[in-house]
Design brief:
The protein has two domains: 8-288, TIM Barrel, CATH 3.20.20; 306-455, Up-down Bundle (Methane Monooxygenase Hydroxylase, Chain G, domain 1). The chain contains 15 helices and ten strands. The termini are far apart. The longest helix has 28 residues, at 379-406. The chain has helices at residues 22-35, 60-75, 95-110, 129-132, 138-156, 171-175, 183-190, 211-221, 272-283, 290-301, 314-322, 332-344, 353-372, 379-406, 430-435, and strands at 8-13, 39-42, 79-84, 115-119, 162-165, 195-199, 226-229, 259-262, 438-440, 446-448. Strand 6, helix 8 and strand 7 form a beta-alpha-beta unit. Helix 1 (22-35) runs parallel beside helix 2, helix 11 crosses helix 12 (332-344) and helix 11 (314-322) packs across helix 13 (353-372).
Length: 455
């Protein structure tokens, strides 16, 4: 059996975007060791030889860099998993492709890797004609190739742990029969029982994952699922990042899982709170209080926001962090700011003096906090934040102008104008124009926006 911990907890470097630097990974491994997280999986989608050119072996320089990562995980007592993603163009029945899978893993094994993963996510769910003649389903084809590779790995690394990511990796995909009818039940039956299978919940980014959902899936796949946690992933929306707490999962779910691995924000410095709260979720006892864990993690993160000028206070950081909280919700302070702003744009602000005073205080404080981000001593953190802080400041500045104009006599219903927010330069570009053509309704559907034809 594997020498790795039975329950995997940690980080997947599995996003679409520039892979992290070696220095960043070393910091990650130190945090993980300090916090009791035990697993790191190397799977950056934009490492060409991980996915798009998976058949190609690593060069001498690339091998040296990969070996340095493996050695660093060993030094910090972190389990290293190497993942390969061949699904874009593999022919499952081709002996040559099966041999190339083994050659690739043999190369990484020689560098010190002991645990492996095959990923078949985000690929076309069609089979090559040659594969159709061998198997009657994509799940059966993937299981056969994976089982063969797993047996080969175990011959060379008897204690190896092996992971697998299915083509339908969330409930919505399974219900739509992405990957074929009965994919998960076929996979559960055909895939070797010691191979762990990833799952993201009912959605790719799941707001909540429940114990009953997890138990039903485990019964279908004949094993406890391994959670590929996308709650803090931001590669699908470069304008956002997420520094809220690990939430939406009851602590009882840990008994139903083979592990929880977080696929986080692309920008390494933005992940302190997600990882810190995940570690507490895994290791602490009793009821889970996400917001309290968030505040405590923010306080630990605060020293990273040391500036060369006026300090960023803890209250400032809470207001800022609440503005970039989680995919489905803002934090309480940001939600309050939004409600105040919305109210003052729909009534006479002069009739709501208390709300107006709160709006002025919060927007001024948040704008000042964003401005002070430019003075961060931790420059990588500033570089990860600056586009988001700039955009937030722009929006706050415009809203301030509009609210203040509405307080002036006779100007309540006049259009608001700003010399700093001109057409085409503000909210401009083709993407912004395209986004205005459709309106997303509360149920997720899209309707055509009213179009004004310019003559």
């Amino acid at each position: 059996m594997s020498n790795e911990p039975a329950f995997l907890s940690g980080v997947i470097e599995g996003f679409y975007g520039p892979p992290w630097s070696h220095a960043e990974r070393v910091v990650l491994f130190q945090w993980m060791q300090d916090w009791g997280l035990n697993t790191y999986m190397y799977a950056p989608k934009d490492d060409l030889k991980h996915r798009a050119q998976w058949r190609e072996l690593y060069s001498e320089t690339e091998s040296s860099e990969l070996q340095a990562i493996i050695r660093a995980t060993d030094q910090h007592q972190i389990g290293f998993f190497y993942a390969l993603s061949p699904g874009l163009d593999i022919t499952y029945s081709a002996t040559a492709d099966q041999d190339q899978l083994k050659q690739k893993l043999a190369q990484v094994m020689a560098l010190g890797a002991r645990n492996f993963c095959l990923l078949f996510d985000d690929i076309p769910d069609q089979m090559h004609p040659a594969d159709v003649r061998c198997w009657d389903s994509l799940a059966a084809a993937q299981a056969a190739v994976t089982n063969d590779l797993y047996r080969w790995v175990r011959e060379h690394q008897p204690a190896a742990r092996f992971l697998f990511c299915p083509t339908p990796y969330c409930g919505r995909m399974a219900r739509s029969e992405h990957g074929g009818k009965d994919y998960l039940s076929i996979l559960g039956r055909e895939l070797h029982q010691e191979i762990d299978v990833f799952w993201t919940g009912q959605e790719i980014i799941s707001r909540e994952i429940t114990v009953p959902q997890t138990r039903d899936l485990a019964q279908l796949m004949q094993r406890k699922p391994l959670l590929w946690e996308n709650l803090h992933a931001n590669d699908y929306d470069g304008r956002r990042f997420f520094c809220g707490p690990y939430s939406g999962r009851p602590r009882e779910i840990l008994q139903e899982l083979g592990g929880v691995l977080c696929n986080p924000n692309c920008e390494f410095p933005l992940n302190f709170v997600p990882w810190r709260t995940l570690a507490r979720f895994v290791h602490e006892q009793g009821a889970w209080e996400p917001h309290q864990a968030y505040l405590e993690a923010l306080r630990e993160w605060l020293p990273h926001f040391a500036t060369v000028g006026a300090p960023i206070t803890f209250d400032d950081l809470v207001l800022f962090g609440d503005s970039f909280y989680l995919p489905y919700e803002e934090g309480p302070e940001a939600e309050t700011l939004f409600a105040l702003t919305q109210e003052l744009l729909t009534v006479d602000p002069a009739s709501r003096p208390e709300a107006l005073a709160q709006f002025r205080e919060r927007t001024a404080r948040l704008k000042a906090c964003c401005a002070r981000m430019a003075e961060l001593r931790h420059r990588p953190l500033f570089h990860a934040l600056y586009r988001r802080t700039w955009e937030l400041r722009e929006e706050l500045d415009l809203l301030q102008r509009c609210v203040e104009q509405r307080t002036l006599p006779g100007r309540l219903n006049e259009p608001c104008r700003s010399d700093f927010h001109l057409p085409h330069t503000y909210r401009g570009g083709l993407v912004a124009r395209l986004q205005k053509l459709l309106v997303q309704e509360a149920d997720g559907s899209f309707t055509v926006a009213p179009v004004t034809i310019q003559k």
